[in-house]
Amino acid sequence: MAGDDFFGVFPYLVSPIDGNGDVKADVLARLCEHTIAAGVHGLAPLGSTGEFAYLSWEQKKRVVEVTLEAAGGRVPVIAGVATTTTVEARHQAREFENMGVAGVIATLDAYFPISENGIVDHFTAVAEAISCPVVMYTNPNFQRSDLSVPAIARLANVPNIRYLKDASTNTGRLLSIMEAVDGKIKVFAASSHIPATVMLIGGAGYMAGPACLIPAESVRLYELCKAGRWDEAMTLQRRLWKVNQVFAKYSLAACVKGGLELMGFPVGDPLAPQAPLDAAARAEVRAILEGLGVL
């Protein structure tokens, strides 16, 4: 599905992989259907929750293929592109565009530190390799070479770099970014932010793993914010914040995969050497989901 205006709730899908390394297509398709039925505005495979760093290129292609088939053009699919080299990032972005994604989420998965000019050159090169919109992803908690506000301001001048997902914990930084880009880039909240707060200051929506667990509730929160019903939005936000907190407390994929297992989606454990949730953590996730009426 082609598209040039992304907004709302995009769950960062998990990548269900069986013991042979094959993508569990039926499980992933069910998860896509579940979230679409809940009203999400798009799907985002191969994010951090999708364990992009642990997947082969063949597994990545299959995850995107299954997601596109399951979406069936009903919502846009934005595929994650995260590599250490610019050449490979350009290749993956082109492949995904040819497969039919509506856009890509570009992440610089750096091992050695990269200069600001090198970072700008990388994202520019990825954007120039394709015609669909690019969402830049910044996560200072995990990335050795992160996007600074001045770098984001420079990249806002690349025509198809249209969005940013910021996974810092600094909401003031988001407002600085919005001021610096002067409307050229829209900003999405991550699980590390309070989504309602980000939307209050002008955010475009919410891209995060917890939306796999609470898609309908996340969509409701977005709708309340868009309607300017801030008192109701914050009442709901306070209830949902427990999911964000437990997501930050434990391994990203382990938390969401563990929660989905409890909900009847046999997505399996996170890929080794990551560890699954232990009994105490699983009980904590269960209690939160039961409190929200999800289980």
Structure description:
This protein has 295 residues and is of the alpha/beta class. It has a single domain, classed as Aldolase class I (TIM Barrel), CATH 3.20.20.70. The protein is 47% helix and 12% strand. The protein has 12 helices and 7 strands. It has helices at residues 25-37, 57-71, 86-99, 116-128, 149-155, 171-181, 195-200, 210-213, 215-226, 230-249, 252-262, 279-291; strands at residues 8-11, 78-83, 103-108, 134-138, 161-166, 186-189, 205-208. A 7-stranded parallel β-sheet has the order 1-7-6-5-4-3-2. β2, α3 and β3 (103-108) form a beta-alpha-beta unit. α5 (149-155) runs parallel beside α6 and α11 (252-262) packs across α12 (279-291). The longest helix has 20 residues, at 230-249. It is globular and about 45 Å long. The chain starts with 7 loop residues before the first strand and ends with a helix.
| Global Rg | 18 Å
**What separation lies between the terminal Cα atoms?**
32 Å
CATH class type: Alpha Beta
Mean pLDDT: 95
- Bin the strand percentage: 5-15%
Q: Kindly give the count of domains.
A: 1
CATH superfamily: Aldolase class I
**What is the 3D shape?**
globular
Strand order of the largest sheet: 1-7-6-5-4-3-2
Q: What is the string of helix and strand elements?
A: EHHEHEHEHEHEHEHHHHH
Instruction: Tell me the helix content.
Output: 40-55%
